[in-house]
Each structure stands twice: as C-alpha cells, then as structure tokens.
Amino acid sequence: MSDKVQFELVSPAKLLLSEEVEMVVVPGGEGDFGVLPGHTPMLTTVRPGIIDIYENDKVAKRIFVEGGFAEVSEERCAVLAEEAIALDELDRDHAEARLQKANDDLQAADNDVTRKVAERELAAAEAMVAACGA
User: Fold this and answer.
1) How many C-beta atoms surround the C-beta of residue 5 within 10 A?
2) How many Å separate Cα 130 from the centre of its chain?
3) How far is C-alpha 92 from the geometric centre of its chain's CA atoms?
C-alpha cells in the first residue's frame, strides 16, 4: 500500500487539483474528516469550509470550498465542490459583502423555498468570512 492518497478537487467547470498527498482534511457535512491511505470507502456531503492538504507532516495548501460531495476510497479522495478558492485568494471585502447580501436576502425571504436558499447562502458566506481570518 502506498503512503500517499490521490486527492482530486473538481469544480463544475474543471479539474482544479489532482496530486498525491500525505493526508487531506475535508469539512464534511457531519464534521471534519481526515483521509489517509487505506481509508474506509465512503460518500458524504461537504459543508462550506477549508480543505487542508498535508505534505511533510504540515499543512501545505488550504482551499475554501462552498460545499459539495466527497468520495473516498482506500487510495483516493475526490471532492466535487460547488466553488473552490485558494485561501490566499479570498477577499475579505467580497466575503463581507456576500454575508451582508445573504442576511438581507434571509430577512426578505417570504416563503420556505426562498428562506432555504437564503439560509444556505448565509452559511456559505459565514464560512467564507471565517476562512478569511484563518
């Protein structure tokens, strides 16, 4: 068995990253989870948050994801992200404006559908603002 795991990050538009890594930590829908070689296969949701990619026993890359799905096997972790941005490319002003708009949209929601959409956007915006300070 290899001492690396193949990590792939895919957005709706393209393959963003594909490389062998020591470990990847993903913000799963049920909580953060780390993937090492030999991981038990699983399929799970990804919540808005930061993916940490480890090399040489330390975090080598950090990527904000808005949400999506993760598929894990013994030798591979693939994250299908709705949106992915390298942490050092996040713009705090943009994130705070997005948060304000999400709060406004939630206040203006007049039915269950628009409320659910606004709540989802609010969670993503809050995670993005928090990631700017990470």
Assistant:
1) 24
2) 13
3) 17
Residue count of the chain: 134
- pLDDT value at position 13? 85
Max CA separation in the chain (angstroms): 54
- Every domain of the chain and the residues it spans: 5-87, 91-132
**How confident is the model over 80-115, as pLDDT tens digits?**
999 999 998 999 999 999 999 999 999 999 999 999
Total Cβ atoms within 10 A of residue 78: 17
> Has residue 1 got a pLDDT over 70?
no
**Residue 6: helix, strand or coil by DSSP?**
strand
What is the pTM for the complete model shown?
0.88
Q: What is the CA radius of gyration of the chain?
A: 16
- Only one residue has tokens 């713009």, namely 91
Q: What is the CATH number of domain 5-87?
A: 2.60.15.10
Angle at 76 between CA 71 and CA 81, to 5 degrees: 45
